[in-house]
Here is the input.
Amino acid sequence: MKKFCVIGNPINHSLSPKLHNFWLKRNKIDAIYEKKLINEKEIPKLIESIRKTEINGANVTVPFKNSVIPFLDSLSPEAKETNSVNTICVEGGEIMGHNTDIAGFELALRHINYDVKRKKAFIIGAGGVSPSIILALKNMGCENICLTNRTFEKSEKIKETFNDITIQKWGDIPEFDIVINATSVGLKKENFDLDLDKSGNNKFFYDVIYNPSETNFLKKAKHNGNKTENGRMMFIYQAHQSFALWNKVLPKIDEETIEILK
Ligand code: ATR
Here is the structure.
């Protein structure tokens, strides 16, 4: 029996086991997918288990998307560009890091027919997932991207990779059409001290968090008359790509798939 897992800290919120085990069963693949709460010191041991094929593949979530990189043999071009890995697999004996968050975000916006061309995008948060969102927006033709983060230095670090983005001091709100909350605030059921209430009422508010399904960020935006979307479809599409990398099968995304995550 093959074994897959997702590593992170915290990990309790992750619905990856639910989704992957559903697809494994549906496609009659003899494998199991588990979640593993680990700390940073345990990363080398986990990679060793993959090398020994005790584990056949892993997803990586907060806060290890960057810190796993030194332990891998090679990276896909997207993982290299974003310095972010969310999927580990073995290819030709090499432990390889991929980033399927980029395609995940892109497909999630395509799923709802949202076109980012000629739109102003405002990203809140400069953590692990932010470079993937920036690259996805750029791939889709968005030329106006502004980033803010509570810790300013982390925005500056991202600008070193993506030098055509604008960075904004925390608290200053630029004009935008779409705002993406790429922080972990919703996951922790916290709020941040940014005042987005004065930004109008016909904007698009996106939260990468899918559990809880409606963060305070989205609740408030909806109350103010904006269009909102959580990270559920991004989550499903990134998992879809990881599943294909490991099992060479593209599982079906249908109503039942979406329902099991609600
Ligand atoms: P990491 O920072 O280790 O990459 P992450 O979960 O990917 O972890 O990123 C967390 C993001 O949420 C960061 O942008 C973080 O801001 P800081 O860089 O200032 O820490 C942001 N974040 C978390 N809690 C926050 C809060 N209460 N207010 C504002 N931003 C917060």
User: Anything to note?
Assistant: Residues 232-247 form the longest helix (16 residues). DSSP finds nine helices and twelve strands in the chain. The CA atoms of residues 172 and 194 lie 8 Å apart. The pocket of 2'-monophosphoadenosine-5'-diphosphate is lined by residues 62-63, 125-129, 149-151, 154, 183-185, 190, 192 (CB under 6 Å).
